[in-house]
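Hypothesis: this fold can be encoded by more than one sequence.
Test: take the structure tokens below, design a sequence, compare later.
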């Protein structure tokens, strides 16, 4: 699907798997019509321009609710928006998917719980976790380096991201391997929205596990994040309780491993697809952090950031009515030519390399972004140091001028279903 065939009104972003296979083309087609375009299938205002996205992020507190941040228009709201929409959300929150989790909180509730979690994700704790990441990356690389090839998503990226977030939280080592297979389907799967079949909370299968960990930490405190979470209070001194805290831990675990694993895989795809970039990066490894930022811009792991308009509001010069769904399409914003010069080219030397919105902005910016950046940086440092060339497998993905990749069938997350790479060992 090329940009010219991505015609608004003919392709449903939230249901058509074809969109997932050429996301830049579809989003470019939307932006060419208008950076804020109302699509006809679900009446969603799709934002693909940087200035319009900033309107959403900057007006968020009084103009938008994040109650639909994860799911967007699906399933439909269990109420017809009218009058005091915040009151309607509060009344029906238990009927709405993901609303037990931090990303969907609003106002003071969100600010208070985010502040509590932010106090736990300290520089000291992240630094200690980095020491673990170095050891883990060395172990994972050593386990595959002599093979000269692997499927990077399962053989490396998924294990790395899951074990890193488990260590940060303080999950017992004997339980960490079981967490590698504990995650269920994505909550915004196309072809039937498989994720909603597990009920309003797709992470419910992890609740008992994390609730048990928190109970154990209250009885037997340790020097880990789970202990601090179990003992934490909100800024007014109230204790939100272990059930709420277990939800916070589950979401941090789920979001942490999802985003990082996709970012690792896309980093390797870029290295293989652009050998000139790989050559340059090998000569200046201190630029790996900038490379990671450009990967985030180029292939954002999260596709959509949705909001519900609480009042009539203007976004990018377009009037959005009260009760409408507004969806910021990160991949479209990150390739807005009005903000990024030559946006379809990969260039980690661009002056705007950190201007992407892949980790959102404002009060709902990703709390785990520093962790994701750190673990991907460490992984790339180790892999590049142990190889002289990283290549995309032509047997699996075709020659350089005719690559074939398969992407996950979901409208929320952007990820490769598999990536086969080869390398020459040092």
């Amino acid at each position: 699907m090329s940009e010219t065939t991505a015609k608004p009104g003919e392709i449903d972003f939230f249901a058509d798997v074809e969109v997932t296979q050429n996301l830049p083309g579809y989003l470019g087609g939307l932006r060419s019509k208008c950076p804020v375009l109302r699509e006809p299938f679900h009446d969603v205002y799709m934002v693909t321009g940087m200035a319009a996205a900033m309107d959403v992020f900057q007006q968020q507190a009084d103009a938008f609710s994040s109650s639909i941040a994860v799911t967007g228009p699906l399933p439909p709201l269990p109420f017809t928006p009218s009058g005091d929409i915040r009151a309607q959300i509060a009344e029906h929150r238990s009927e709405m998917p993901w609303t037990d989790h931090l990303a969907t909180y609003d106002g003071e509730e969100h600010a208070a719980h985010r502040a509590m979690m932010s106090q736990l994700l300290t520089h000291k704790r992240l630094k200690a976790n980095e020491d673990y990441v170095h050891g883990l990356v060395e172990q994972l690389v050593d386990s595959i380096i002599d093979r000269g090839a692997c499927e990077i998503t399962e053989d490396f990226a998924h294990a790395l991201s899951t074990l890193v977030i488990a260590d940060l939280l303080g999950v017992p080592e004997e339980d960490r391997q079981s967490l590698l297979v504990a995650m269920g389907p994505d909550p915004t799967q196309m072809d039937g929205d498989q994720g909603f079949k597990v009920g309003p909370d797709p992470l419910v299968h992890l609740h008992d596990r994390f609730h048990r960990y928190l109970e154990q930490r209250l009885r037997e405190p340790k020097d880990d994040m789970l202990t601090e979470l179990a003992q934490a209070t909100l800024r007014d001194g109230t204790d939100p309780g272990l059930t709420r805290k277990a939800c916070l831990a589950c979401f941090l675990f789920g979001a942490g491993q999802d985003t990082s694993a996709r970012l690792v895989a896309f980093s390797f795809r870029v290295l293989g697809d652009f050998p000139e970039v790989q050559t340059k990066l090998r000569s200046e490894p201190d630029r790996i952090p900038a490379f990671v930022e450009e990967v985030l811009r180029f292939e954002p792991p999260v596709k959509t950031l949705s909001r519900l308009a609480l009042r009539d509001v203007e976004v990018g010069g377009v009037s959005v009515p009260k009760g409408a769904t507004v969806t910021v399409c990160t991949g479209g914003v990150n390739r807005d030519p009005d903000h990024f010069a030559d946006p379809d080219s990969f260039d980690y030397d661009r002056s705007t390399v950190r201007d992407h919105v892949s980790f959102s902005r404002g009060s709902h910016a990703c709390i785990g972004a520093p962790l994701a950046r750190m673990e991907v940086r460490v992984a790339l440092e180790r892999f590049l140091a142990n190889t002289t060339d990283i290549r995309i497998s032509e047997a699996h993905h075709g020659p350089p001028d005719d690559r074939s990749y398969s992407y996950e069938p979901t409208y929320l997350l952007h990820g490769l279903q598999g990536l086969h790479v080869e390398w020459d060992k040092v």
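The CA atoms of residues 120 and 228 lie 7 Å apart. The radius of gyration is 21 Å.
Hypothesis status: open.
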